[in-house]
Design a protein that fits this description.
The protein is α+β, with helices and mostly antiparallel strands. It contains eleven helices and twelve strands. The chain has two domains: 166 residues, no CATH class; 252 residues, paralog of FGE (formylglycine-generating enzyme), CATH 3.90.1580.
Length: 444
């Protein structure tokens, strides 16, 4: 530790707080101009190494390996924090990882989800945190910019050098882990068998296979009968959800996740799909978020291209609620932000779309994610408010003619009433698209 006195020497030149030097004028322009110098005030920001700090004696390769080992340990801690739903720790660790390496592509997306859980605005107001810190610094009496800069260089230099040497001397660290792919970080979920296993001659609920064209994972929904719609005693039920009626369906497959931007753009590149309306939006066009800004016709085009189709309204509701008539995909009446991305008890859970599969505690009985919340989902059927009064029991396919198509599931901006599995909505099928409307496919 012989080097510490040299590193901390600039601190000795810091004048007493009660000295009579001319006080700095911390105007808004000054704050803006010195924003980079005080970058360390943002806990999620990278700490720059001042140009005046001597380069460490380690080789570039050794430094890179040390940084990767450190990032690997932080990444393991991040995964544990996600599993524990400690969102503040997720944001803290995510900032540290991004300060060390840039290869962890899913870290930024996980931090976005964590910010949504804590209802932190999409873009962190760094200027506000800087102004708050500057207000505290203004209370220091007569600190000149020269001495303040020397003090900052000394402290930051000491922290950076001690960290690098400590990482290099730690011989117990395992080799760097392989860097993660663009797939979202998954929170451990309960096994679908805990929700009850139902099988037919083709398979059991939740069994998976991969669709060849777009490589989407699909889950099996076994044949069976269920009660569709709402009971008249339900105060939240709309007249178009009544009467409740039994429907019998053959087995089918449905997408485990809503169709993402990453998959949708493959159809666009093949010339079979129109471009999403939100391709220039950084969040809405995130590769692992559900595609939005697509019409019913766009959804049909994609599913046809992928060798699939849109689910019928009855298939969608059966995959979401199962045989026991539950109000939500899960088996309680709770609608907290742990279960779905919607408008929760304390406001919007995220305020925009989330990475698909981010709510494993709200998974349906066939292990399908985000059946409610996140985005509304187009289905095959034409909308008819009176159809439940005369719909057939076998292989319900929806009203044959009308002018608008059915939407199901609610979205990131929907209230509790709208994310009930029996709720029905509708809109124009050829041109309507919005920032909270997407889809998933089904197949025989």
């Amino acid at each position: 530790m012989r080097f510490l006195p040299l590193l901390l020497k600039p601190c000795a030149e810091l004048p007493p707080l009660w000295s009579g030097y001319q006080q700095i004028s911390f105007t808004e322009d000054y704050v803006t101009g010195w924003k980079e110098m005080y970058h360390w005030l943002d806990p999620t920001a990278a700490v720059p190494l001042p140009s005046s700090t001597p380069e460490p004696s380690l080789s570039q390769e050794s430094q890179r390996e040390a940084a990767q080992r450190h990032a690997a340990r932080l990444y393991e801690q991040l995964q544990a924090a996600v599993a524990a739903e400690d969102w503040a720790e997720v944001i803290h660790l995510g900032g540290q990882i991004q300060a060390v390496v840039k290869e962890y592509r899913d870290v930024r997306r996980v931090v976005v989800v964590a910010r949504g859980k804590l209802q932190i605005p999409r873009t962190t107001p760094k200027a506000e945190s800087i102004r708050s810190a500057m207000a505290q610094i203004k209370k220091l009496h007569a600190v000149t910019s020269r001495h303040l800069l020397l003090w900052l260089v000394g402290i930051i230099g000491a922290i950076v050098v001690v960290w690098i040497i400590g990482a290099y001397l730690d011989g117990s660290v395992s080799p760097p882990i392989s860097l993660p792919t663009s797939q979202p970080t998954k929170i451990p979920s309960k096994n679908v068998s805990e929700l009850g296993t139902v099988c037919d001659g083709r398979g059991c609920n939740g069994e998976e296979q991969r669709r060849e064209k777009d490589e989407a994972t699909v889950v099996y929904v076994p044949a069976g009968a269920f009660t569709m719609g709402s009971d008249a005693s339900d105060a939240d039920a709309g007249s178009d959800e009544i009467p409740q009626h039994d429907v019998t369906l053959d087995g089918f497959w449905i997408d485990k996740y809503e169709v993402t931007n990453d998959r949708y753009v493959r159809c666009v590149k093949d010339g079979n799909c129109n471009t999403s309306k939100y391709t220039d939006d950084e969040i809405l066009n995130d590769p692992d978020h559900s595609v939005v800004g697509v019409s019913w016709r766009d959804a049909v085009d994609y599913c046809n291209w992928a060798g699939a189709r849109l689910p019928t309204e009855a298939e969608w509701e059966y995959a979401a609620r199962g045989k026991d008539g539950r109000l939500f995909p899960w088996d309680t009446d709770d609608t907290s932000c742990v279960l779905a991305n919607h408008w929760g008890n304390d406001g919007m859970c995220v305020g925009t779309t989330a990475i698909v599969g981010s709510y494993p505690k709200g998974v349906s009985w066939v292990n399908a994610f985000d059946m409610v919340g996140n985005v509304w989902e187009w289905v095959q059927d034409w909308y008819n408010p009176d159809y439940y009064g005369y719909s057939p029991e076998q292989a319900l396919a929806g009203s044959e003619t009308n002018t608008v198509k059915v939407l199901r599931g609610g979205s990131w901006s929907s209230l509790k009433r709208d994310i009930r599995v029996a709720n029905r909505d509708y809109n124009g099928w050829e041109t309507f698209s919005d920032s909270d409307v997407g889809f998933r496919c089904a197949q025989e």
